[in-house]
Amino acid sequence: MQGKIIDVTLDNVVGEVMNMKNDGQRLVTFSTYRAGEEQIGILYHFDKNLETTHLRLVADMDKPIPSVSGVYFAALLVENEIRDQWNVKFDGLVLDFNRTLLLDPEVTQVPLASNVKIGPKA
């Protein structure tokens, strides 16, 4: 991956995303990866004038992650996808699909989080 990488924490991720927006950065997407047995890594990808910057967050999977959808509304789609696929919750998500964005009602297990069952959908 090319570009500048900035490490962020749960405490400053929203502020750093706001800084990116104020700088005229375009939110491209997020990437996720397993960072440890009980941790998830999220890379927030930005672009300005064909130069990329990435914010890197490593967080415990059982703790909510602050949503950046209040800064970039489109982030709600990626955050809902991460919730569907990894069983990670986001605090302050502007529109929470409650695991129905990508997963059909008959899906009973979170695809990328081992041994995590999904309860019935309303």
TrEMBL record:
Which InterPro entries does the record match to this protein?
NADH_quin_OxRdtase_su_C/D-like, NADH_UbQ_OxRdtase_30kDa_su, NiFe-hyd_3_EchD
Q: Which Pfam families match?
A: Complex1_30kDa
* Top-level taxon of the source organism: Bacteria
Gene Ontology molecular function: NADH dehydrogenase (ubiquinone) activity
Residue ranges annotated for the NADH:ubiquinone oxidoreductase 30kDa subunit domain, each copy included = 27-117
Record protein name field: NADH:ubiquinone oxidoreductase 30kDa subunit domain-containing protein
